[in-house]
Amino acid sequence: MPITELLVRNATYYKNDVALVEINPDVKNIPLVTWREYSLIESGRGGAFRKQMTWGEFDRKANKFANLLLTRGIKKGDKVAILLMNCLEWLPIYFGILKTGALAVPLNYRYTSDEILHCLKLADVDALVFGPEFIGRVEEILYQVPRVKNRFYVGDDCPSFADSYDRLIEYCSTQAPSVPIDDDDDGAIYFSSGTTGFPKAILHAHRSLMHAATVEHAHHGQTRDDVFLCIPPLYHTGAKMHWFGSLYTGSKAVILRGVSPEWILRTVSEERCTIVWLLVPWAQDILDAIESGRVNLSDYHLEQWRLMHIGAQPVPPTLIKRWKSIFPHHAYDTNYGLSESIGPGCVHLGVENVHKVGAIGVAGYGWEVRIVNEQHEPIQSGVGELAVRGPGVMKCYYHDEAATKEVLDTDGWLYTGDMAEYDKDGFIYLVDRKKDVIITGGENIYPVQIEDFLRAHDAIKDVAVIGVPDKRLGEITCAIIEVKEGMSLTEEEVNAFCMGMPRYKRPRRVIFAKVPRNPTGKIEKPLLRRTYSSEHLVAQQNEIKMGKEE
């Protein structure tokens, strides 16, 4: 059954019940004021804008956008990209695309104009929906993608090169389009990337999307009474696929456009949230705010909050011990997944296995997992590569047959590139990543892109970028820079040069040293990680010790 049928069911049976709420703490910056549906929330702890949508409104808006696309010539199999910050319109737009039989193509809102251009071309995108934050980036690459003739702008002051989404859907029919869709039809393209730079396009069928909803419900047992708090970006498979549990049960979800501990706790309190998915840095920030006294838990109503789960990066066991000491009644869970396996859930710890914190878990609902050697033969002990199989595995890397064959075999096994091992009870622990991608605060950073940028500096002979452990973010980027003979370079000069990169890609640490390469010319990154990761941990421990002494 296509996942769009769940929305139709909810609109039929729960028509007037709230489906989505958007909370925007920044009362001075509401870019989508044309919606006229916000209400101002004020209290002693500050104000915010709140907007909500029922299941009936959700389905009608999806139908309106679907019909708009159809009138513009978008047909089954076409691709429609979404470049929006989290907002209430995001999901109705996504489902409107699916209802036409077209493929939804979510884009990372941190992409540069070059990355947007690459993704639009690679995925053969036919239409683009974008918001006010992206006007400059879209305009910069507009004429390099003549195929994207339909450009819909969500917000005030529509630019001349786009059409107003808000204005056009007013005149569209609310009737569901009669486009037949089955489980094997293509449904969405998501993007991922390894250390080679630009993202790969990951093609998923409708079957994958529906399986994600089934898995999320099976793992966390949502009911109609649950309220899910969604903070991570909706372009990512993780946030959306966890929200699919709310879609599955017809329960309310809250989209929070802010990550401060105060606003997370206030939203949980005022919206009566029961399930919250966090990234490691956000959980640490909440604990730090509570332990420092900046946040007083007695100011909030949190008794209904039953589940805190974390994904997108390794979880320090000490973090969960701290969390459980403050919130002993919370169930805890973690999920492992990747965009090629439709996000979280192919490996799952399970709320009953909190004693195994540190493991990523066992096979998720409807999934098979195994650890294999270099010949892709299953092994029961020692370290090998993690492989997964199930209805949520991608169909292929779109337009990249060679890359597909590297990770997906003819029996449906997806080789993740992550090295893992079993413990004596069959729980899986990640040992190291086969790929060099750096995960900082749940976001993937691709070292080659940063290395290529830095090599443009006149004083840099060679450079390697690695991830080093960080207490809050999991990892931070560290640039090892080899300076040309006879030249000088300071960390301040490197930081100034890196202002030309997006902020999240800028190295957080700079080390001046020789960059080791093996006989074939490849950078010896395992050696660099062993050397500088341990050094970084010692530095962190010394900082903590000094802080205590002071």
Quick rundown:
With 550 residues, the protein is of the alpha/beta class. Helix content is 31%, strand content 26%.
Any overview of this molecule?
This protein has a domain at 438-549: GMP Synthetase, Chain A, domain 3. It is built from 15 helices and 27 strands. Helix 1 packs across helix 2 (55-71) and helix 9 crosses helix 10 (280-292). A ten-stranded mixed sheet has the order 2-3-1-12-11-13-14-15-16-17, sandwiched between helices. A hairpin with a 3-residue loop joins strand 25 (460-470) and strand 26. With 550 residues, the protein is an alpha/beta fold. It is globular and about 70 Å long. The model is unreliable at 30-37 and 540-550 (pLDDT under 50). It starts with a helix and ends with a helix.
- Mean of pLDDT: 88
Secondary-structure content class: alpha/beta
- The CATH level-2 architecture of one domain is identified as 2-Layer Sandwich
Beta-strand proportion: 25-35%
Largest sheet, strands/sense/barrel: 10 strands, mixed
Question: Can you give the helix content as a percent range?
Answer: 25-40%
Strand order of the largest sheet: 2-3-1-12-11-13-14-15-16-17
- Residue runs with pLDDT of under 50 for 5 or more positions: 30-37, 540-550
Number of strands: 27
Query: How would you name the CATH homologous superfamily of one domain?
Result: ANL, C-terminal domain
Number of helices: 15
CATH topology grouping of one domain = GMP Synthetase, Chain A, domain 3
The first-level CATH class of one domain is given as Alpha Beta
